[in-house]
Amino acid sequence: MGITERRIREKERKRSTMLDAAESILIEKGLDHLSMEYVAEIAEVSKGSLYQYFQNKNDLVLGICYRATQLLNNSFKEVLESNRNGLMLVRELGERYLNYVKDHPQYYSSMKFLDNLHSSGVGGESDYLELCTKNRQEGFRLMVEAIQRGIDDGSIKNDFPAEQLALLFWSTSHGVVTISYMHQNYEHFKLLERIGMQENELFNAYMHILGCGIAADT
Q1: Domains of the chain: residue spans and CATH
Q2: What is the mean pLDDT of each run of 10 residues along the chain (218 residues)?
Q3: DSSP type of residue 112
Q4: How far apart are CA 45 and CA 125, in angstroms?
Q5: How far, in Å, CA of 190 to CA of 205, rounded?
Q6: Which of the residues 37, 112, 126, 132 could staple to 59 if both were Cys, CB 3.0 to 4.6 A apart?
Q7: pTM summary value
Q8: CA angle 82-84-90, nearest 5°?
Q9: Tell me, what DSSP letter sits at residue 217?
Q10: Torsions phi, psi for 189 (to 5 deg)
Q11: CA pair distance 165, 137, nearest whole angstrom
């Protein structure tokens, strides 16, 4: 291994250590407690060293979001390696998304942070902003691919183009997943209890309605 390669690896190792520290704070304390000072303390680096890798708190959260979107896309790609029909692939993608939020709430919160940055128009100069955006676009493309397979194999109606169906699926599933996230992470959120519904029942009902709407007549 040459000197240049060794330096690159060491730099990436330090960056990863800092992101690990930021992620641990996000898990244990939440976004409001994440700060450059706290991350530097947990990562056991100087604040000046941290600023060499990340410009500010936003940059750190976007770094976590990059990890989050990479993990989710890799999970989606595993689903698309299956030779099942498109309708089944769409359901599996939905299940993967829901389980992802359950298993990695800190990643979902980082993606919500990205959405808020987009909506506010405040993104700064972070390289991670573009990387996260590209990953989100790739995730959407994977959904389009699953739906297009279903249209091609006859398991999904061809009433709408695949991109339009993907947009509808993404926007509506986002609402279901957000309810699941709030149910797990906000003690005051009691909507599911009030209407007597479990998380899995909510998801299954949603997928049933979706499946009835897009499934081709047999």
Answers
A1: 1-54 (1.10.10.60), 56-214 (1.10.357.10)
A2: 80 94 92 93 95 93 95 97 94 91 89 79 74 94 97 94 94 86 79 85 84 80
A3: H
A4: 23
A5: 19
A6: 126
A7: 0.85
A8: 90
A9: P
A10: -85, 105
A11: 15
